[in-house]
Design a protein that fits this description.
InterPro entries: PG_synth_SpoVB, Poly_Biosynth_Transport, Polysacc_synth. With about 550 residues, the protein is mainly alpha-helical. It is built from 21 helices and no strands.
Length: about 550
Amino acid sequence: MHVLGGNNSRDDEEVMPVMMDPESSSQDTMLRGSAWMTAGSILSRILGAIYIIPWMAWMGSDYPAANALFAKGYNIYSLFLIISTAGIPGAISKQISHYNALDQYSTGNKLFKHGLKIMTFMGVIFGAIMYFGAPVLATLFTDGDPRSIPVIQSLAVAVLIIPILSILRGYLQGYSDMAPSAISQFIEQIARVIYLLVATYLIMIVNKGSYISAVVQSTFAAFIGAAVAILILVLALLRRLPKLRKLSQNGQPVADVNETNFTREIFEQAAPFIILDAGITFFNLFDQSTFNQFMRMFVNATSAQLDNYYSLFGFQANKLIMIVVSLSTAMAVTAVPILSGLYSKGNKDKIENQISNTLELFFFIMIPASLGMYAVAQPLWTTFYRYDALGVLMLQFSSIISILLGLFTVLSAVLQALYRNKLAIKYFVIGFIVKIAMQLPMIWLFHEFGPLVATSIGMAVVCWLMVRALHAIYPFNTGRITRRVSGIILFSLIMFISVIFVDWVVFHFVGNSDRIISVVALALEAGLGGVIYGYLVLKTSLADKILGSKVERIRRIFNIR
């Protein structure tokens, strides 16, 4: 694909407003980018959870086995996805922003085109390994379950093309242009869910077929979604070509860097993204690989019961809390090019301020979101999965852990954007070792909750080490963050207590198993929580301090003084 070329003269009015100096108004860029990525991520995650309702109904009595099979296949797929993309999209985003900050747009585009070749090659290689190595992967990660082999093979087809999708997103994100990524993410999920539901309905309801065949088609839907998303991004890139050319033509000439140097540069920056992007997946795969064996040491349970326990926290609860964690992923994706640009310009003061802004925005969103999910866990779980007391407890515990998972995502992205890759990897490895060491004793103490406890301990260690190191290098304003986060926690707790009270009243009088009532209660409680938290942060001007002066417009609309 020829991205840059021609000899047009400079026209400042044609230069994309988002694709400009990463130093100017970095808070606005962060908020705008986070808003786009959050919207795309949240909508796609919600859609990815909603499909469970009809999917579960059509699976009927086979649902527990189908759900566990789906979860096992997807965990392996997630790992291969991260390896096959090799962290290159994050590295491309980071390096594109670096070159743009130095007015070397042509060099950045040359890097992108070389990266596109690498990603195509990686997709072919790892798609083939996953497809032909499916029996070995099933032995390693699913306790030799033969049912998982066709599921793994169906997902291998998606691995073939998703590296291309990822680098297209990384390129546009390097210009802090988040809208195409967000839109393509949502449309990708729509296409995936439509194919998944149609295929499942035809197999299970029309043809009365096997749930294994339905799961295979449900996982193959990842390829359908990715293909549609690539089309969306290519169209977006074509629309931006004239403006991209102008930036390139009027910047510095292409640096004298050969393809070998580009390849080395890409993989040097990509390696940390591989490890750290896969961080949560490594934790999940360790749970998946050890859960049944460790549980059998302390619990007398059948394989079906153990599959159900694992599915509750490893797939069902995890699917819901990842809606919340995706908020932090959106912030991390947005923060990388901003911080990388500031680092390239050597602006230490602005880096410190941007770190403070990023952490404050993270806590401003994540704390109320996590506590809110804890408060509405019962109607939320019943809406998606039918009432299950153990499942509700799993979701509540997982909701609190999501704060640590999100913080790890943001902190690792910040360290990588500031070229502290080795530190980020070192601290993750330490935390993962802690997780491994704590797994068996935590399962002994807390049985099916043990893996979650071990994860929380390991992630807490990682986050503490990262914050400490980051502050030592860039002493951001901890006093300001502490004051604002204290307000966030206070207002979140007021919201939490209010919603918990309403939840208790509703389910005390009407019971806890009706899905329709749960949907109504969920909407009521979520709306109430949002109104309470929103009013408090607007009334006290906390929102203004974190989100900027534009919040004043919202206050005027709702007449909050």
